[in-house]
Specification:
Blueprint lengths: L1 E11 L3 H11 L5 E6 L1 E3 L2 E3 L10 E8 L1 H18 L2 E9 L3
Antiparallel strand pairs: 1-5, 1-6, 2-5, 3-4
């Protein structure tokens, strides 16, 4: 197994494309997106039952080398500061096959 970093982002769905652009720009080789993520945060309950993406969250995760994870986090910081959301970076082990 190979030590890597997992980057998880929860953000309003209307900003999903901006997050994906940051990942692409950082050179990640893949990511997973789960739309209509439900939950409660500092902005209250995100029910996910709206007709538009305005009050829906998306969850994105990727696994990448440490330097790429920190680059992603720093690129996302201004967006998260402006519109809210969360970015978590954690240690993981990549099972190579």
């Amino acid at each position: 197994m190979k030590p890597m970093k997992k980057v998880e982002v929860v953000i309003d769905s209307i900003y999903l494309s901006r997050v994906l652009n940051v990942l692409e720009k950082a050179g990640v080789s893949g990511y997973t997106v789960i739309k209509d993520a439900l939950g409660k945060g500092e902005r209250g309950m995100m029910a996910g039952d709206e007709l538009t993406d305005v009050f829906k969250n998306s969850y994105v995760f990727t696994v990448c080398p440490e330097e790429t994870a920190y680059k992603i986090a720093e690129e996302l910081r201004p967006l998260l500061k402006k519109v809210g959301g969360a970015c978590l970076v954690s240690d993981v082990l990549w099972l190579t096959h």
